Structures are given as structure tokens and as C-alpha cells.
Amino acid sequence: KQWYQRRVRMADIPGLIEGSSLGRGLGFSFLRHIERCKSLLYVVDMSNTDCGPIETIGILEKELEAYKPGMTENIVGIVANKIDLLHGPQKIIEMARAFPQYPVMPISALEQRNIVAVRNVLEPFKFLYAHQSEADMEMYD
Fold first, then answer.
1. What angle do CA 70, 98, 103 make, to 5 degrees?
2. Which of 28, 84, 91, 137 has its CA 20 to 30 A from that of 52?
3. pLDDT tens, 67-76?
């Protein structure tokens, strides 16, 4: 197929939990869905006190690799959300140091801060949508 004939789907998979690769929760369903994805972007809640953001990414990495070795090769970055609830940049710095292989994009979805960083990472995929209508493209504007 030509580049303009390809279809790309974006999905939010919020239910991946520790033990998913063993079938816990809806693990296999989510992992089968993720397996079809060519690119993945982690979105992590930086304000989560139950499980720290670095630990969360570590769990996701472990579950993806346990399900199918090589799945983490499709990760294109980490979106560090809810920075509006942080007191300083320390958690972002720690995240970047823990995962130097990924760009870390600190954002506040609530305040619409730094959303352009995510858009810039996703920009190379935009050409795949050239065949869609203007209404479909609004999510990128």
C-alpha cells in the first residue's frame, strides 16, 4: 500500500495493570490490542501517590515484554501528565533520568500546558491521515 492508503488507529488503554501478562484483569484483551499498535506513547499521572510514575512505567514495560518480547521497541515517548499538581521539576527530572531512551513530555491537560510537545512527537504520524476528511483531522489542530 502507498503511504496515503494506510490506516492508523489511536487508542487509550487505561486498564493495563500488574499481572496483565498473566491474564489478570482484562490483561490479555488489552495486550492483544496493544500488540497490533505500531507506536505506543505512555501517559502517566505524575500526581499518583499510590504508585509512583517511575514505578508505573516500570510495570508497563515489564508487562509488555512479558507478554511479547520486543513490544517496548514501539514506545515513542512518555507523556508526564498533571504537572500542574507538582511542586517543582524534580519528578520530571527523575523520570527523564530513569528512562533516557524516551523523550519525556511534561504536560498539564487541564491547563493545556506543553501540549505542543506531544503534538511534535506525533507529527511524523500525521501524514498517515492525509486521506481522511477535515473533520477527522480536527483532533490535530
1. 70
2. 28
3. 889 988 888 8
